[in-house]
Amino acid sequence: MTVLVFGKTGQVARELAHYSDVRCLDRAEADLSKPAQCGRIIRRLKPAAVINAAAYTDVDGAEQDEVLATVINGDAPAAMALACAQMGVPFVQISTDYVFDGAGSTGFAPDHKTCPLGAYGRSKRMGERGVVAAGGTYAILRTAWVFSRHGTNFLKTMLRLSETREQLSIVNDQIGGPTPAAAIAKACHAMAGGLASGSGRVGIYHFSGTPEVSWADFAAEIFAQSGRQVTTTGIPSQEYPTPAKRPLNSRLNCDSLQEQFGILRPDWRAGLDQLCADIEVI
Ligand SMILES: NC(=O)c1ccc[n+]([C@@H]2O[C@H](COP(=O)([O-])OP(=O)(O)OC[C@H]3O[C@@H](n4cnc5c(N)ncnc54)[C@H](OP(=O)(O)O)[C@@H]3O)[C@@H](O)[C@H]2O)c1
Question: What is the structure's pLDDT at 281?
Fold first, then answer.
């Protein structure tokens, strides 16, 4: 089967590109700021399944650019899902913990009420609603704290800062599960197959790495596994102001993904040392 993936250069898309049955579309082939074009491409290429791994992911930028973020994260996935529904093709959409307000200290279940704190979360929630409304065979996978050797992410930022800094102050009151992009790609690919074969159920699912930690804990583990001599001091979010407010609690209850698709949460610490070594040589 041919799995059509929107996105080619992003963290998750690059990992999906390793699968032999996947065809990735870059921005020049499919621009999500033109949602109708995305629907037309699906109708023309007639894939067996579609995964949307492209998005407006600049969380702070979205505060100034909510109209564009909403077209890319809201209207485009809705148009893709509608085309898929009309053709009877399964559709997998990637979403985010930022649809929640971050209250509490337990893992959000997929049916928990959404309440985004900012423009990015609102735009992603609009995408979720559009996918559900299309009424096709869909799965929405909410994930969090994505990292990989490519793109912009916390792991690469920490390794870069460690080149020049011996001490760093890192936020320690936001808690979440760092999630390798490769594990997300594997999950999305398996879900597309599961939906196509009828072995997995339509719905919203959660997927993030384990154990759940603070950004400060994540940084400390990165420095330990990469052998960098950097000491970290935990600080509250108020001492690291950003244009967009971040949820304090990004824990996701991932049980239903295991029950429906047999997909387990990855331990994000496994293989982190090798990933750090690979990033050094890039
Ligand atoms: N990163 C995280 O921590 C995180 C957390 C939770 C959920 N997510 C979700 O996970 C998914 C994958 O994220 P990621 O981290 O892999 O993304 P990423 O590395 O930031 O890459 C974003 C991708 O979207 C593409 N894109 C942006 N605007 C586009 C447009 N108008 N037309 C076509 N393509 C466009 C980019 O292409 P260009 O290179 O051409 O710009 C790039 O390939 C997204 O749905 C994101 O919302 C991410």
Answer: 62
Residues 6+ apart with CB under 8 A from 194: 200, 260, 261
Q: Which domains does the chain have, with CATH numbers?
A: 3-151+179-208+251-266 (3.40.50.720)
Cα of 234 vs centre of ligand 1, distance in Å, is 29
Q: Is the pTM of this model over 0.85?
A: yes
Instruction: Work out which ligand 1 atom sits closest to the CA atom of 120.
Output: 47
Instruction: Locate 132 and state its tokens.
Output: 């559900």
Of the residues 56, 98, 120, 205, which is catalytic?
120
Task: List, as one string, the DSSP characters of 222-257.
Answer: HHHHHT---EEEEE-GGGS--SSPPPSB--B--HHH
End-to-end Cα, the chain, rounded Å? 33
Q: Is residue 138 annotated as part of the catalytic site, yes or no? A: no
Nearest protein CA to atom 24 of ligand 1, as residue = 54
The helix/strand/coil state of 64 is coil
Q: Which residues line ligand 1 (CB under 6 A)?
A: 7-13, 27, 31-33, 53-57, 72, 94, 96, 124, 143-146, 151, 181
CB 59 within 8 A of CB 244: yes
Buried b (16+ CB within 10 A) or exposed e, 94-125: bbbbbbbbbeeeebbebebebebbbbbbbbbb
Angstrom distance (rounded) from CA 55 to CA 74? 9
User: pLDDT tens across 140-152, in order?
Assistant: 999 999 999 999 9
Query: Distance (Å, rounded) from C-alpha 276 to C-alpha 271?
Result: 9
